[in-house]
């Protein structure tokens, strides 16, 4: 009789229980659908609870995408527009400040700012945006500009990464979001976003940010043309920089949304694939404190389930998100604090409002103050 061989997690379980690091080969083996998803989730949960106990974090945040006009044509992007496209827009300083005021009145602690690379806007336009928002609303943390924008600023000004980051930090930049990472392996990167900041540039910019005391996040866009090898390579590269600097706070796996993109023939990743990606990310990135289940793109149900598969953070209440909604995300535009805390409690976790740098937030309505850094196991 021929017996099917079911891959076993025993050796990996032992390593995870002993707090030992997984090799790239071990990590790659975990993408095999024959590896039991629930058992994988259980292991990821072990690490999650070791690091963050029963807490699940969220923040109150607002997005700002000041322009969608972009010189690049990444195949996965539904947000970008040409200058003369009817969809193309650029926000004025007044509109940007109004967004800041709305954010503060809604009690936001963070503004997440990313946008297109508008070829008729110079670096000063992007710098000024940070300056006017910070001057008007100094308590609002500005998590702004990915390495894709920073690399563009260096290209426009012929100045160094360090010079640009120092200037942005002086103007009020608080930290860098995790975008623009996509898939680092050149076999894929060259096909989906060949012109924008390459992998070395992405890492150089985060490394320099960390050296300057700026924290940052990291992402991975999965579920398009990449495979298990590319995803593993992506995670291992991130783990290496984190060993060097310790400057990353959170990892956010981003499920590809195909609508209105040049990859619209590809089906979007299933909830099982998203839970597996979260669990493997938690296991490989043993030196990251946090894993974010970004509810906007995972969908509320999968994000809630992900809290048992390695995730300890749901991102925020989120206002004015465009990048995913342009690509067909059907999630609501905003969640209330009551909604998000109910989702967390129903998943058996204890909700904790955090600021961008993972300090506990205490609030009464729109008035808030940050407390001690949150417990790290
Ligand atoms: O870099 C673009 C991705 C990213 C699509 O740091 C798409 O806290 C799926 O980085 N389908 C931007 N993904 C978003 C981002 C992010 C989100 C939430 C929190 C944080 C953080 C960062 O969105 C891009 C790209 O990888 N993206 N288009 C799409 N059609």
Q: Please state how the strands of the largest beta sheet are arranged side by side.
A: 2-3-4-5-6-7-8
| Regions with little confidence, pLDDT below 50 for 5+ residues | none
Output the CATH homologous superfamily: Aldolase class I
The total count of strands amounts to 12
Strand composition percent? 15-25%
The biggest beta sheet reads: 7 strands, parallel
Instruction: Give the integer mean of the pLDDT values.
Output: 94
Terminal CA distance: 48 Å
Q: Any idea of the CATH class? A: Alpha Beta
Total individual domains:
1
- Summing up helix and strand content along with how strands pair, one would put the structural category as alpha/beta
**Which bin fits the share of residues in helices?**
40-55%
Rg is 20 Å
SSE run: HHHEEHEHEHHEHHEHEHEHHEHHEEE
Count of individual helical segments: 15
The second-level CATH architecture is Alpha-Beta Barrel
Shape: globular
